Amino acid sequence: CLFIFLTDCFTGLINIMTDIIWRFTGDFMAPDLVCRIVRYFQVVLLYASTYVLVSLSIDRYHAIVYPMKFFQGERQAKILIVIAWGLSFLFSIPTLIIFGKRQLSNGEVQCWAVWPDDSYWIPYMTTVAFLVYFIPLIIISVIYFIVIRTIWTKSKAHAIIVSNCSDGKFCTSYTHRGLISKAKIKAVKYSAVIILAFVLCWSPYFLFDILDNFSILPETKERFYAAVIIQNLPALNSAINPIIYCIFSDTLCQAFRSRRRSGNLGTFRERTEGQEMQFKNIWIAISSSSNWRSAVTNSAMDFEEA
Fold first, then answer.
1. Contact 148/66 with Cβ under 8 angstroms?
2. Of 7, 35, 73, 114, which one has the fewest beta carbons inside 10 Å?
3. What is the pTM of this model?
């Protein structure tokens, strides 16, 4: 989850910050080379924010479905991240050619796509929609379906307990802890919330762009206001992902609850020292929770106990 956090931070820093500056100045004031570089990295982060989520799904799949495999952990996470970012940089290369500084028909100078004909937008946006949204959504949905099915199946398994009988022999008994444990329920809920947030934030964006490129939407004031909101929804997805993780992280929640309980006790100096210690504890909790596999290890261990 640390990689998702970093990707979301870069998305806010590069994509959102540059758009704010651009909207404030009106025209694009920088040279053409800056225009192409800015657009390139914006598209890179667009791909990366989705592909890192796919990498997390694959890592979770291996941790749940194959918990005893040796080829897991930090090495697998790093390989998945390298692949995700590599594909993001690769698929964004056409942006360096497509976009450039140009003067629009209304006289504004903007960093815009330079097409021989506006009809090129349709195949371009269709390709981007499949690479950024539809294909990753299919992969994530299939992976989490298998993960949830595995959790559900393993939760029904009976645990065998071997104990000593009164006559000195070994006795075998079976125990059943319920259909699904709390840890497995939390994993299912976390997966469902991540997928739901991804769908809710990205579906309106690509649906609106596709309809707009096919000239299906009318040129009205309501369309303009809707475009302003919908085109910022992908950035909202990057903003809420860390919040979702914090909500489902027991370590972070316990650290914040402990800080809140002890925040009003003692003198000012004691409270200050206590707050410093709590901040250190929270930082340690965040560092220890940064590994992707921390959230799924408990579930995998619980499978063996179930």
1. no
2. 114
3. 0.67
